[in-house]
Design a protein that fits this description.
With about 425 residues, this protein is of the alpha/beta class. The chain has 13 helices and 16 strands.
Length: about 425
């Protein structure tokens, strides 16, 4: 087998000579045009596709036999004339000029091979059999094309890594000694946030639950350690997730705690944040697309159809909750009507001491959180201008805008039985 060194060449604007005008030459020409090369074709005759490209101004075609001067100033030369004698003469001239050559006539005369190519968007997979079996390479290409189509969602999510504006790829990777509490979305890898996808791809350790889909986990590095920590009914063993997170981070691992949907909606994210804060471990929360909106949206159901539904009530259907506690109220687009919100909730019986958090420009660099109690919400709206967009959270959970208050709750929280593989 030929020892080959695979590369992808940047040919935009560079001159490439193709000697030949038949079907094989046409395939070479089409790929060169797609790569942006300045294509010169030399052949006494040409198939219709070559003529069409010439008429469209995409190539220059000289309707004659090859001449040595045709190699002047070209970066590459590809031959598909079907004439071995011509191939040998061009080989000699290309060697003299230091130009790389590929011939379809005699493999031993080629400096490089043109591989079979499977593509999807920006993804290209080149297949070579060292020039020994073009038919075999074509069969492998067909199999790869089927795989690319089948894995389209995972591939598109992987390609999206590093495309986040304003950040270098290095600065976006998961950092050693840090824990990322990441929402994996409702299942479709295409619904991952860019931040989630890049962290999954760069993590050393990923602790995931059973709601994380296989397509999402496929984005992990082959060297990443995947640890299942999801609930399994009847499992006698319990995973100490907080301990695993802390120990992994202290071992200088880049750790992703991957949760289905959003990590802080009906999940243990709060407990894990508290444990990391107590242990002094740096962490970051990466919100995810929740099934709360994704699943109805996929089914075409508008949860807050104008004129039909003003609110959405979200409840856990998990059996055996010892104390469901008071509800949490979340108001969208209420920054300019805090007095009305306060009056409405007071009329529903909420005490004036109920905690309130107002989150302005959430997730943006200038995010700001204001806290108060329901009894002083109206006054806050009058004294402090509320920038939009703003989300108003009312309920006992709003007090945990100060995350240090989570820690005392750890000992009192009932831990569901969870097991590891």
């Amino acid at each position: 087998m030929n020892p080959l060194y695979p590369i992808y060449l940047k040919l935009a604007g560079r001159a490439v000579l193709v000697a030949g005008g038949g079907p094989v030459a046409l395939r070479r020409i089409q790929r060169l045009v797609a790569a942006g090369a300045s294509v010169r074709v030399v052949s006494p005759n040409a198939v219709a596709g070559v003529v069409e490209l010439r008429n469209a101004g995409k190539i220059h075609w000289s309707a004659r036999k090859f001449e040595a001067s045709d190699l002047e100033g070209v970066a590459l030369c590809l031959l598909a004339t079907g004439d071995e004698e011509v191939a040998r003469s061009v080989r000699e001239e290309a060697t003299r000029r230091g130009i790389l050559l590929n011939t379809a006539e005699v493999e031993s005369l080629s400096d490089f091979h043109v591989p079979a190519l499977a593509t999807r968007g920006d993804v290209q997979i080149a297949v070579s059999t060292g020039g020994q079996s073009p038919a075999g390479a074509a069969r492998l290409r067909a199999a790869l094309e089927a795989w690319l189509e089948k894995s389209a969602e995972s591939i598109d999510a992987a390609v999206a890594l590093g495309r986040a504006p304003g950040a270098s790829s290095a600065s976006r990777k998961a950092a050693p000694g840090k824990v990322y509490i990441v929402g994996a979305g409702p299942g479709d890898p295409g619904l991952l946030t860019l931040r989630a996808a890049e962290l999954i791809a760069s993590a050393d350790v990923i602790l995931h639950d059973r709601l994380v889909s296989r397509g999402v986990l496929d984005l992990a590095s082959p060297n990443a350690q995947l640890v299942f920590v999801g609930k399994e009914a009847g499992c006698p063993r319990e995973a100490d997730i907080e301990r695993l997170l802390v120990e992994s981070a202290r071992a200088a691992k880049a750790v992703v705690r991957l949760k289905g949907g959003d990590p802080l909606l009906f999940a243990r994210g709060g407990e894990e944040i508290a444990a990391l804060r107590v242990a002094g471990v740096e962490f970051e929360v990466v919100p995810g697309v929740s099934a709360l909106t994704a699943a109805p949206g996929a089914a075409g159901i508008p949860l807050t159809l104008r004129g039909t539904a003003r609110e959405v009530i979200v409840r856990s259907g998990h059996p055996g909750e010892p104390d469901p506690g008071p509800p949490t109220y979340v108001y969208f687009m209420a920054g300019s009507r805090l007095a009305q919100v306060a009056a409405e909730l007071a009329a529903e019986g909420l005490p004036p001491s109920t905690p309130v958090a107002i989150i302005q420009r959430g997730t943006l660099p200038d995010q700001r959180t204001l806290t108060c109690v329901l009894g002083s919400l109206a006054a806050l709206g009058e004294s402090s201008p509320i920038e939009t967009p703003a989300l108003v959270v009312v309920g006992e959970v709003a007090r945990f805008a100060d995350a240090s208050l989570l820690a005392p709750l750890l000992d009192g929280l009932a831990r569901p039985s969870e097991c590891v593989e």
